[in-house]
Write a structure and sequence with these properties.
This protein has one helix and eight strands. A four-stranded antiparallel β-sheet has the order 1-2-7-8, with no helix packed on it. Strands 3-6-5-4 form a four-stranded antiparallel β-sheet, with no helix packed on it. About 5% of the residues are buried. The protein is mainly beta.
């Protein structure tokens, strides 16, 4: 998905609502880090990404990022809209 989406009514996107991360230790230069991501959509208008970071078997940290699916009209502030089936299918296709 692109950062900014277009449909016949205008622009859509996913502004960040909240982010949190707990670190156990930093990744070091040239370490290979695996990121495990779980995507959930629990209210139809926002997405929660839960992440865990690993270096081999060692867990480096974990976190969450919540984003809202919003329309960006030119004449008023952005507002949340239901996530379309097409966008949902793309979000979950990588799982």
């Amino acid at each position: 998905l692109s950062v900014v989406l277009d449909d016949p009514k205008g622009k859509l996107g996913f502004p960040k609502m909240s982010a949190h991360c707990d670190y156990k230790r930093p990744a070091r230069y040239e370490e290979l880090v695996d990121v495990h991501v779980k995507v959930t959509c629990d209210d139809g208008k926002s997405v929660l990404y839960s992440c865990q970071f690993f270096c081999g078997e060692e867990k480096l940290g974990s976190g969450q990022l919540r984003v809202a699916f919003c329309r960006f009209p030119t004449d008023k502030p952005p507002y949340a809209v239901p996530i379309t089936d097409e966008v949902l299918s793309k979000l979950f296709e990588a799982e």
